[in-house]
Amino acid sequence: MSKSRLFVVVPVFNEALNINDLFDAFSSLAKELSSVFSVSFILVDDGSSDDTVRLASESAGDLDLSVLQHDVNKGPGAAFATGFSHLAGLLSTDDWVITMEGDNTSRHELIQQMLVRAKEGFDVVLASPYMYGGGFTQTSFLRKLLSSGANLVVKDLLDIQGILTVSSFFRLYRADALLRMQKTFGPGIVERNGFESMVEMVMKMAMLRLSISEVAMQLDSSRRKGKSKMKIFRTIRGYLSLWRSKSKWFALVKEA
Question: Does the pTM exceed 0.85?
């Protein structure tokens, strides 16, 4: 009996300092899941100007790795759209897809727990620092305040209810859920290039009535070497701008 396939999609931009640790996590993940899944990694380089791609190629070893590249930096949303479009011709309904941060702040140790939750019947499982048992470590008070405030405002304005975090990259998807989203919204699924693309995806999941669950995660910023690529106020503006696209996306759902 053939194994199910699990694809891990990770956008990276100037992550040379984090590549070795990232690939150590990849190797651990592939070994841990090898009895159940055939694991493939898709790295989407978003126009890096450092040694990210070279180091990734050197670190891959015997991992099944594909590297997709943008000539210039376009933003994480564009990187995810490239990754999802690449998967469009590969996915079968019984496959699985994980998306993760490229800076090691996604705790790969949680993936087994996320899979258990998904096998309870959920289409998508999010890793959430806002759940009881989750939290933030080595993260500035201002960043936590802005993140929490933006999370609340966005959920209220966009009418996203019952989900504690809407912006995390770290997610597990049933392939069938992504295929439904691609059928409705196109192969890349998201059209926003910035960090707000993750909120866009949650909006589109809710429009399609996909079932969503969460697991608690401790977000430890000390695992990241170098600075975060997120620009807080630009991202908040991006979140708020999503409201203008709601009616267009609802129309696509009705047409599907």
Answer: yes
